[in-house]
Structure formats: structure tokens, C-alpha cells
């Protein structure tokens, strides 16, 4: 009996030691790891992971939502997209470059910024299209369906007013998809658009031409290319390299189209069998 009690005492000590060590390790890994662990406990039913809302009839528009990373096409088409704007610092520079080269693009706008900086967009979106990138760039994958819907609806109205046309495409911040995002997208009759190629500014500090060559080498027919017209100074490498990138892609036979035009020209997949 004494031996048994001793074994359990030792186990308790080891268990407590393990918990203490685990707590210390958690502190060492920092906030991101702690957030990841906490996210594993997010509620499923009714929470961010849930793609249904309550037990009644689901009010979800047409009843379906598609998610697009790229288009299936043999034609040399590429869609250039810009996230996070508009803001006075870089958006006008991007629009100037696109005007100079007659390149259409798709701007995924943040609703709060579109409302605050509507003047940047006025009269300048003739060849372009706009998409919804949330109201204030929160991570929508952390919020439930009601919160996500309200956020996107608010952004939708602000973007439509600022741009003069209503967005029909949605790109959630960080590309994070959750059930609540899918539910809200279906409810608002959005098409979800991610990307198949992204600017890699940090790999080419101070080298716009080198960055442009890297991006051009990665473009394939049907590519949706992600850029940003908001951010820190490192992103200027990509924006300053836009003329080289546009010229090089055109030299390779590529044509620039909006995302919606790219999807309209996409070919349907062949059925197997």
C-alpha cells in the first residue's frame, strides 16, 4: 500500500512538473502559438466553423457559393488584383500606372477605407472592377455567421457607394475561409476569389526589375495574381516594378483582364469517363 501511494505521489509530482513546463513553453512560443491553441477550442455549432445558422430555413441567396483560385483556360489571360485599399499613399500611383498601360484590374476594397477615401476612386474605375475585402480587414474566420454577414453587408454598401458599382466578388482578409464566411458569401450572392500567385516583395528588396522577372516567370494562363496597394515600404518593390511586369507579360502574349472577365472566358472542365 505504501509503495502504491509512493508511485501515485511521484506521478502527481511529474504531472505537475509537466504542466509547469508546458506553461513555460507556451509563454516562450509567443502570442501566435497561444492564439492557435485557443482557436482549436472555438465553438463549432454556431461559431466561425459553422456553415449553417440555426435550425430553421437557411437564408442563403441562390443556395451555393463557389471558390476560385485560378481559371481553367488555354488562352494567355491573367487577372491582376490589388487588396487592402484604397488609401492616398499608393492607390493613386497604382491607378496611374494601370491607366498609362491600359491595364484593367480588380480591386478588393476595405469598406471603411472606401468610405473614408472615396475621392481616390471617383472617376477612375472605368476599366476596373471592385470586390469586397471586408469592412475593416478583421480575420473573418474568427467570427460567427451573423457577425460576418453584417461586416460584409456594411462593406458592400460602402464600396458600392464609393465605387459607383456593387461588388459581386469577395476575398476574405488573409484568404481565411471559415464556415461563417461561406454562409455569408452565399447569403450575399458573392463569388469567393482567392489567388494562384502572389507578389514576393520581401525576396527582392530594392530590386523592382528582379521582382518583376520572378512574377512573370510564375504566371500561367488563368493566373489570378495578388498584389497590394496598401502596406509598408517593402511592397513598393512590386508597385515600382509594375511597368516591367506588364511589358514582359505582354511580350509573352498575355492579356490582362478583370477577374470576372477571366471567369467568363474560362473553359468548363471535361467530364471524366
UniProtKB/TrEMBL annotation:
Q: Which SUPFAM superfamilies match?
A: Glycoside hydrolase/deacetylase
Please list the residue ranges annotated as the NodB homology domain. 76-257
User: Where is coiled-coil annotated?
Assistant: none
Biological processes per GO annotation? carbohydrate metabolic process
GO MF annotations in UniProt: hydrolase activity, acting on carbon-nitrogen (but not peptide) bonds
Give the source's domain of life in one word: Bacteria
Q: Which Gene3D superfamilies match?
A: Glycoside hydrolase/deacetylase
Task: State the protein's name.
Answer: Peptidoglycan/xylan/chitin deacetylase (PgdA/CDA1 family)
Q: Which organism is it from?
A: Micromonospora olivasterospora
